[in-house]
Each structure stands twice: as structure tokens, then as C-alpha cells.
Amino acid sequence: MTSDHDPATASVGSARYDLLVLANRLPVDRVTDPAGGDRWQRSPGGLVTALHPIMQQHAGAWIGWHGQPGPAPAPFTHDGIHLHPVELSEHDVDGYYEGQSNATIWPLYHDAVEQPVFDRGWRRSYHTVNERFAATAARLAAPGALVWVHDYHLQLVPGMLRRLRPDLRIGFFLHIPFPPVELFCQMPLRDEIMRGLLGADLVGFQHPHGTRNFQQLAVDLLGAKLTGDVIEHGEGTTTAATFPISIDVATQQRLADDPQVRTRATEIRRELGDPATLILGVDRLDYTKGIEHRLAAFGELLNEGRLDPAQTVMVQVAVPSRQRIDHYQALRERVERTVSRINGVHAGIGRLCVHYLHQSYDRAELAALYLAADVMAVTPLRDGMNLVAKEYVATRADGTGALVLSEFAGAAAELRQAWTVNPHDLDQLKDAIVAAAHATPDEQIARMQPMRAHLRRHDVNRWAADFLSRLDRPVVQGQAEAAA
Ligand code: GDG
Prior knowledge:
The protein is of the alpha/beta class. The protein has 2 domains: 9-245 and 463-483, Glycogen Phosphorylase B (Rossmann fold, 3-Layer(aba) Sandwich), CATH 3.40.50; 249-457, Rossmann fold, CATH 3.40.50.2000. The protein is built from 17 helices and 18 strands. The protein has helices spanning 46-57, 90-109, 120-140, 157-164, 181-184, 190-197, 208-222, 249-257, 259-271, 291-303, 326-346, 363-372, 387-395, 426-438, 441-457, 460-472, 476-483, and strands at 17-25, 28-32, 38-42, 61-65, 76-78, 81-86, 141-150, 169-173, 202-205, 225-227, 230-233, 236-242, 277-284, 312-319, 354-357, 375-378, 402-406, 419-421. GDP-alpha-D-glucose (GDG) binds at residues 44, 46, 175-176, 245, 282, 284, 319, 360-363, 366, 383-388, 391.
């Protein structure tokens, strides 16, 4: 990654960068101080943590939306990263973001657990916004720069950028599942998306299933030739490979060791009435996360007397998400009705069975919840990875705690010692929750330790380094020959 520009003297706005990251959102949020002043604050996500050192080292820039419709702020530097906001109008937010990205692609890529909505106007908007991102990257990239494009919002960008700047090395990582051929082919935008993704030199997926689905589609839909993990297509070659994302394990462990967090964990249990078993769920309030299945299982276990309502508490953190989209409003109503029904039947005065928290929390409070929980229930119907499962494991320094994990989360491919479940099989889910709740400390530790060891070796820094070093390696042709 070399170029002749000097990052020390380049001013944001006119600089050309050796490393560019493109994601729907910039890694900062605008927050308002109590005094009424606005400032930018780094967002809590693992992606920015992982990329931060690399971005600083290579004087990289991040291109993304700043989170508000309307004119984009001028480029600025925050925490050593150069940020280039992309403007989205109200119309773009409706069509590109809430429409095509979150009401078409998101449900379709998650097994169509909700019916994807197809809309011509949204598709046009998606195309327009992807063009805007590609044009910004083309303008800002130094000759031969590495460009790393993230996620389902920007699938057309690699192809568009390739046409504008053939000199770049372009990588793309999909954070959500890549669906089977039959599902993908429902999408009117399917050819354009495939050609968009194949504009990249390297396309990364969370799970081998996604990688295989993509390779098969390239062959079936576009007549590409597959040799090893290299796809030869009309426009060149693209490597498709699996790079399971992870978390910042060191930071998570520091939180777990923090005396204030530990005290808070004890306090949480006390505030909940010191139950024998605390079952925890932490998710964005999203229909892919299997929150309803989890609640149904818990409700039945209480009805059947297999869990004692006086001794068992469930805490469900449901972080508000995509609240303007119909699917999400309907889900919220269903979840709230179910919670209320369970509490109506099983709670007592001053004693709830389900504590439902439609709020977001800071990382320290989340870590305290992870420390307090005997059973962590992660039951998505489909999930690219699921970082909550990994965070729970990384927090449990003494090896206790029990993770119930859906086989449909990408994380299940790595966290093999969890109580693995098919969340659609309610009886199996119930049995797993009971088994996890009754596991002895020895059994918990025997399961937890190998998962903790795995995470120590596979943290988010390694994920980013693996992807970027593979992207930076000009060996695509060599690999094709070796595999032939
Ligand atoms: C997508 C894919 C993939 C949760 N509540 C709060 C909060 N969180 C944090 C968690 C965790 C993250 O948000 C959620 O990550 P997930 O992986 O569970 O889920 P998605 O948001 O759906 O993410 C997913 C991921 O991308 C990465 O590739 O794993 O499959 O769907 O880190 O701790 N953070 C804060 N307050 C909260 O209340 N600050």
C-alpha cells in the first residue's frame, strides 16, 4: 500500500488515500451535550475498533453517511480517521436505505422470514446512492489504493468503482448471510448485484454457506468458471472466501475485569430479586433474531412448571431498530403482547418474569448484564454472525455461564460447545434452555473454555488483518493456476 501523497501534509477534502473504507454509516454518531452543543462521538461498533489502527497507520479515510437526511457536513478528521460524509436526501433514506436495503435485501438475505418488498423506485434509489459512493471513492483513492466496501447497502459499488478506477484493489465484505440461489433469484436486481460484487478482487462472507451460494450463483447466473475459490467471469477474476468476523476480545475482557462492572453485575441480580436463574437476551429488535421463539419457549416452560416463575427471570434487551419500517413496528407489537401475556400469568407483585427493555445501553452495562446472566439465549432464525454470542463468551472469565445458540447464527460454526438449537423446534429450544439452566459449574466450564480459547485466537483484529492481507496480495492469477 504505497502512494506518493504525504498524509501529514494532505488536508482532508483534497487528499488521496491509500486505504479507503466504505460503509453505509460513518463510524461516528452526532451527540448533543447537556449544554446543547453538538459533537461527534465514535460509534461503539467492533468494525471501527478493528480498523482504527490500520486506518491510522495508512492514513486511511472512511466514506459513509453521517446519519441525518440532508446536506452532508464537510469532510473532517475524528480520532485520527479522515471522514468523508455522503449526502442522503429524505428520498434516498426512504428508497435506498429503508426500502431497498432494509425492506427488500435484508429480509430476502435472511431466508425471507418476512416477505421482501420489491419496489422499482427503491431500486433506482439504491442504484443512485451506490453511484454516489463509488464516485466519491474514485475521487479520493490514491493510485493503486486498497478499497474495502462493506455490507448489503453497497453491493453495486465494487463494479461501479472498477469501471471508474481499474487500478484499484477492491474488497467487499458482506456482514449478513448470502442466500441460496433460489431465494436470491427472486430479486429483480439480481444480475446487477452479481455484476456489482464481481467488480471486487475479493468478496468475503461470514460463513462457508454464503461463499458457496455466491460461487454457485456466479456459475449458474453468469456462466462464470470456478477454480478453487477463484471465479473467472467476463470482467476478470474475483476470489470468494470466508472470513468470520469477531469481536475486540481484549476490550471485552477489560470490561469484564472492571470492578465497577462486576459490582454492577451483582447489583443487577439483586435488583431482579436474586433469582436462581437469570436468562438473558440482547438483540436489536429485529424479526431475524428469534425473540418471539425465545419468549414462546420461556412462556411454555413456565406454563408447564419446568421453570419456576418465582426462581427464574428473563431479561430481554431489545434495542430499538428501523422503527419506521412496517415489519419492525408489527414485530414490536407482537413481542410486547407476548411479554405482557407471560407476565400477566406468571409475575407477582413486585416480581416480573420477563424484564423487557426497549432501550439501548452502553457497553459497560451490557457487560454487567453478560456477567450477571446464567443463561445467554441467542436464537436467531438467521444471522450473519451474531456478536452478542461472542461477547458473552469473552466476558465469562471464570468459565461459568451457559450459551444457548441457534444453529442458524454464523457464530455456531465456531462456538461449537454451546447448547446448539434449531429455534423453529420449540421442544428442542425448551430442552436446551432447561439443560443450560441446570448445568453444573463443571459442565459450564468444560463448554466455555474451548470457546474462549477460540475467540482469543480469532479476534476482530485478526479478521481485519486476514481480509486486508488477502486483498493486498496480487496472487489471484497464481491461485487460479495453482488450483487448476
Ligand atoms: C450485523 C449482522 C453480524 C447491542 N445492544 C447494544 C449494543 N449492542 C451491540 C452488541 C453487538 C452489536 O450491537 C450487535 O451485533 P450483532 O452481531 O448481534 O447484530 P447486528 O446488529 O444484526 O449486526 C450480524 C454483525 O453485523 C457484524 O458483522 O454479526 O450477523 O446482522 O456488538 O454488543 N451496543 C450498544 N448499546 C446497546 O444497547 N452500545
